């Protein structure tokens, strides 16, 4: 059993209203020194087998077709240590 | 300028219907060997200053009060390399 992490974030050129709302709320809540926040998604994908190159290729395909909208989002795939 | 990552995931004992829906959709889409998926949130927090211990303490307070619902969610804070 291995666990692979897929992080999905909006592309840098895409506006992120959720992140902006958080960044704007922070000063009101007493936090300073945070000019920007971006919000994305994190998926923990459990694998029956080992996280070898073939399995990671499958997870990348999964991210591409199901987990991320690659028109507006970037994703990264990594094995959890 | 430093960037701190806050990962927010549902606690292990809390049901994750989004993750379950993904895990159940995978076989239909031709993916096998993935018994479970859990979905959470990822925040990229930009800091004006360095990510020193004081700044990380502030980000942890931020996660506790704004980014995570600690009744049902766990969070981790780490500096992006």
Describe this structure in words.
Chain A is of the alpha+beta class and 81 residues long. Chain A has a single domain (2-79), classed as Phosphoribosylformylglycinamidine synthase subunit PurS (Mth169, Chain: A), CATH 3.30.1280. Helix content of chain A is 33%, strand content 35%. Chain A contains 2 helices and 3 strands. The first copy, chain A, has helices at 17-28, 53-67, and strands at residues 2-10, 36-47, 73-79. In chain A, strands 2-1-3 form a 3-stranded antiparallel sheet. Chain A is elongated, with a radius of gyration of 16 Å. Chain A starts with a strand and ends with a strand. The relative contact order of chain A is 0.34. The mean pLDDT of chain A is 96. The interface between A and B is medium-sized, with 33 and 33 residues. Strand 2 (36-47) of chain A pairs antiparallel with strand 2 (36-47) of chain B.
State the gist of this model.
Chain A has 81 residues and is of the alpha+beta class.
